[in-house]
Automatic annotation (TrEMBL):
Matches recorded under Gene3D superfamilies: Helix hairpin bin (1.10.287.690), Palm domain of DNA polymerase (3.90.1600.10), Ribonuclease H-like superfamily/Ribonuclease H (3.30.420.10)
Domain DNA-directed DNA polymerase family B mitochondria/virus: 294-726
InterPro entries given in the database record: DNA-dir_DNA_pol_B, DNA-dir_DNA_pol_B_mt/vir, DNA-dir_DNA_pol_B_mt_lin_plsmd, DNA/RNA_pol_sf, DNA_pol_palm_dom_sf, RNaseH-like_sf, RNaseH_sf
Leading EC class: transferase
GO molecular function annotations of the record: DNA binding; DNA-directed DNA polymerase activity; nucleotide binding
Family: Belongs to the DNA polymerase type-B family.
Protein name: Probable DNA polymerase
Localisation: Mitochondrion
Database matches in Pfam families: DNA_pol_B_2
Taxonomic superkingdom: Eukaryota
Catalytic activity: DNA(n) + a 2'-deoxyribonucleoside 5'-triphosphate = DNA(n+1) + diphosphate
GO terms under cellular component: mitochondrion
Length: 868
């Protein structure tokens, strides 16, 4: 019995014939002959499964695994025959290349199993099985009721199987059996007592809803869904952190560090370029000073590290005998772990926790303020690093009044660049340390959370929610894999559009805390998602979740409400068009759109329970905010946390790994992974970014992500804004995610300081809107201008002239080019052409070639059928 405990296959060629009962029996009998030649012990058990190979080469499993004895051959044939007979027509009409019996001989003590539960496939097609589509038992086959009509036996036509049915008032429990062995069990429930062909069938985790014999809805309760768990707050506050700052100068347009300071709460240490041969050597010395046992597990905070200082450090670190582990998301260095021996430190960006300038943070947290320094003075290559002399000219101190500057000159006999630089740099690290310490103390006092565990503001807000506000009833499902991809289709942000580009006497409003408002005021999706196919509203008009729908918009709507993503010649865009397309939307957004004439055909989707899971979080933080003076620590903290939680649930799950390797090592990573980028550090080292080949940079299951939560919040926010876009007798000129510009003041009932109310920000005497995020308006006391991507300001009249078709305004500004390979940043002045460009709506000019209005684009399917 040499074949014991090894899997074998008995293969029977059919030469692309239709598999008939005769051919199946012939293949089965040949299999039994082969089997008997291998069996020497009559007590042996056999594990066996029935499969076929189609003429296309595809393998199909027909039966569940059976465990039999040598006395069960006849029964086994009957079971295999029944499995084959309940397959749908598509199986029986396809040519079969081979019949395959996969089997293994096992010891006699192995338990016999001949009562499989088979996932059924009704005539409405599911897994290839065929079952009746009515509750009328007289239509199932030859039947016999018990004397009391509480049960029945129905012989399945053309089969040795039969249905055993237990009858109740409005439901029946059915077992499909053969030789007293149960193949499957299901329950049918009446939906209409006058129509036995309208019913609901429950089969394990699947639910099927029939109307007049037609399947209208398929549902599936998803298994193995995990939920967001509570975290335990910190028992004490940690002060294991340092602060670090780099001062840079731009010589011939290239930024490099020339001074570094570090502060651990007690001692300051500084490094100055004139003491070292190169900037890299200075950085090397500074980093080496941190590689001490007493700093093990310390966090080193550098303000704006992810966008600035990390550029100078990566190459230097790669030259050291260290293990470098960066975490990078969306181009930002979230965390840089440095390990030597058995010790580690972590470089972090304090700006990712406190997104404000250090000067503003010092003022808000009432700590020592930043110093004053002539930044531009050191950018002159003729100024030596050991410069001693007069105080630099007033032009290098733009923030000082003439009186303050004169006082500085009077009180300074000799101005020393080295001393002033180190003094300024050391003050920065002390200020940053004090800000972080106060922030840490306040967060711990309010929420018992240690900020050192969380590198970013969203991660901190997430921890505060989980530790202080998440309850056992808030079953927030963690969504990954294919299901995550479905919800991503329905996750879009706010709507930003220009409708009328020029106007006078306009009113500009902002919503007070739009996202926190909807988080507090509306329920969110929770519980186990239920997958469905069909128009769920036929059986539940209040169905709640995300639905894939075919959309048909009204034909004459100037400001459409539903967004969709579409590919254009200039890349992917999110637009609010007219026309028809297929997309994924929140059920509430679908209901809202129907009010304005949209029509939908629901294809499939996911259902959820719902509950108010963020009300307490928002109310608690909002109470802190309203009871704090603007600019104070509690005010800043509450404002930051209110606006930082929602996006964490929709965080991109695609996680790359980033490592530093030697030349030549990249081949082994290329073979086994998907390489997303390789950066040559020009020192024999490479930074390589990759995803595991098996996941294709797909979902990381450990990230606690629930895209339906974020997608619900943004959908509800768009619904809230739609109320203002659709006001009667009102012209809307411009909208952003949480703001709107119109020609009339809002009703006072809609305006106030409460969450969700509107706040009048500007009354424009005259305003021009050239494109999303590009506008300028004159009030009675100031000009409000915004140009996305441009930091300087320009006059209103110059903006207004751009309303003329093909007009351009040539601007210039400094642009930074980060060069990790050379450990520097190139500052280059570049031209910027400001003009009206193709945006997300059709541009319309009047007879004088003046930009007059925009109209919605029209799409059909996945294509724009209007010309931009």
């Amino acid at each position: 019995m040499s074949k014991l405990n090894s899997w074998q296959e008995s293969i029977h060629d059919l030469d692309n014939q239709i598999l008939t009962q005769i051919l199946l029996e012939k293949a089965f009998n040949q299999f039994i002959l082969e089997l008997n030649q291998l069996i020497t012990d009559p007590e042996v058990k056999i594990l066996v499964q029935f499969k076929i190979e189609l003429d296309t080469g595809l393998l199909r499993t027909i039966s569940r695994m059976q465990t039999i004895t040598t006395n069960d051959y006849k029964l086994l044939l009957d079971i295999f025959t029944e499995y084959w007979s309940i397959k749908t027509e598509e199986y029986h009409l396809n040519a079969v290349q081979k019949v395959i019996f996969t089997y293994k001989l096992v010891p006699s003590k192995f338990p016999t199993r001949l009562s499989p539960v088979v996932k059924p496939k009704p005539t409405f097609t599911f897994k290839g099985y065929d079952l009746p589509n009515t509750m009328d038992l007289t239509q199932w086959g030859e039947y016999k009721f018990s004397p009391n009509y509480l049960s029945a036996i129905i012989k399945k036509p053309k089969s040795k199987a039969y249905y055993s049915v237990v009858l109740k008032d409005s439901e029946q429990i059915v077992e499909l059996e053969i030789h007293d062995k149960i193949l499957l069990t299901f329950m049918d429930k009446m939906n209409n007592i006058n129509d036995l062909s309208s019913f609901t069938r429950v089969l394990h985790e699947h639910t099927y809803m029939f109307r007049e014999g037609n399947l209208i809805i398929k549902q599936k309760n998803l298994k193995n869904i995990k939920y967001l768990t509570k975290v335990i707050g910190a028992s004490h506050i940690s002060y294991k952190f340092l602060t670090m700052d780099l001062e840079t100068r731009a010589i011939n347009g290239i930024l490099t560090p020339y001074a570094i300071s570090i502060y651990d709460g007690k001692e300051k240490i500084s490094f100055y370029l004139s003491d070292y041969p190169t900037s890299d050597e200075m950085l090397l010395a500074a980093i080496s000073s941190l590689l001490r046992k007493k700093y093990d597990q310390y966090k080193i905070y550098i303000h704006n590290f992810s966008h600035f200082d990390s550029v100078f450090m990566i190459k230097v670190l790669s030259n050291m005998n260290l293990n470098i582990s960066p975490i990078i998301r969306d181009g930002r260095m979230i965390d840089l772990k440095i390990t030597w021996k058995n010790y580690s430190i972590y470089l972090r960006d304090s700006y990712l926790l406190l997104p404000n300038s250090l000067a503003n943070l010092a003022n808000s947290f009432q700590v020592e303020s930043k110093g004053i320094f002539p930044y531009q003075f050191v950018n002159n290559s003729n100024i030596p690093l050991d410069y001693r002399g007069c105080v630099p000219n007033k032009e290098f101190y733009p923030d000082l009044t003439s009186e303050q500057y004169n006082s500085l000159v009077t009180n300074t006999s000799t101005w020393n660049l080295r001393i002033e630089t180190i003094k300024y740099c050391e003050q920065d690290v002390v200020t940053l340390y004090q800000v972080i310490a106060k922030f840490s103390q306040q967060i711990f006092s309010l929420f018992r959370i240690d900020i050192l565990k969380y590198p970013t503001l969203p991660s901190l807000a997430f921890a505060i929610y989980r530790s202080n506000f998440l309850t056992k009833d808030n079953k927030i499902p963690l969504i990954h894999g294919e299901m995550s991809e479905f919800f991503k289709k329905g996750y879009t942000g706010g709507n930003v559009d220009v409708y009328i580009p020029y106007g006078k006497n306009l009113f500009s409003y902002d919503v007070n805390s739009l996202y926190p408002y909807v988080m507090k005021s509306f329920p969110m999706p929770i519980g186990n998602p239920i997958q469905f196919e069909g128009d769920i509203t036929l059986v539940d008009k209040d169905a709640y979740g995300f639905f894939e729908v075919e959309v048909v918009t009204p034909k004459d709507m100037n400001i459409p409400l539903l967004q969709c993503r579409i590919k254009t010649n200039t890349g992917n865009k999110t637009i609010t068009p007219l026309g028809n397309w297929t997309g994924v939307y929140h059920s509430d957004e679908i209901k809202n759109a129907k009010v304005y004439g949209y029509k939908f055909n629901i294809i499939r989707g996911y259902l959820f329970e719902k509950d108010y899971i963020f009300s307490e979080y928002v109310e608690s933080l909002y109470e802190i905010k309203v009871n704090s003076k603007p600019g104070t620590p509690n005010y800043i903290i509450s404002k930051l946390l209110l606006n930082s939680l929602y996006g964490r649930f929709g965080m991109n799950p695609n996680m790359e790994t980033h490592i530093i390797i030697d030349y030549g090592e990249e081949d082994k990573y290329i073979k086994n992974n998907i390489i997303t980028s390789i950066t040559d550090l020009n020192n024999g080292k490479l930074i390589i970014s990759f995803c595991d080949d098996s996941s294709e940079c797909d979902t990381n299951n450990n990230l606690n992500i629930s895209i339906p939560i974020s997608a619900t919040i943004t959908a509800l926010a768009r619904i809230h804004m739609s109320k203002f876009k659709t006001l009667k007798d009102t012209k809307v000129f411009y909208t952003d995610t949480d703001s709107i510009v119109m020609d009339k003041p809002l009703n006072n009932k809609l305006v106030g300081n409460q969450l969700g109310k509107m706040k009048l920000e500007h009354i424009y005497q005259e305003a021009v809107f050239l494109a999303p995020k590009v506008y300028s308006g004159i009030t009675d006391s100031y000009i409000n201008t915004k140009i996305k991507g441009f930091t300087s300001t320009i006059g209103f009249d110059r903006m207004k002239k751009l309303l003329v078709k093909d007009s351009k305004l040539r601007l210039s500004q400094d642009k930074w080019y980060k060069n990790i390979s050379e450990a520097n940043i190139l500052v280059k002045s570049e031209s910027y052409s400001l003009m009206i460009t193709e945006n997300k709506r059709k541009l319309v000019y009047n007879n004088n070639n003046i930009f007059d209005k925009t109209l919605p684009l029209t799409i059909k399917g996945e294509k724009i059928i209007d010309e931009l």
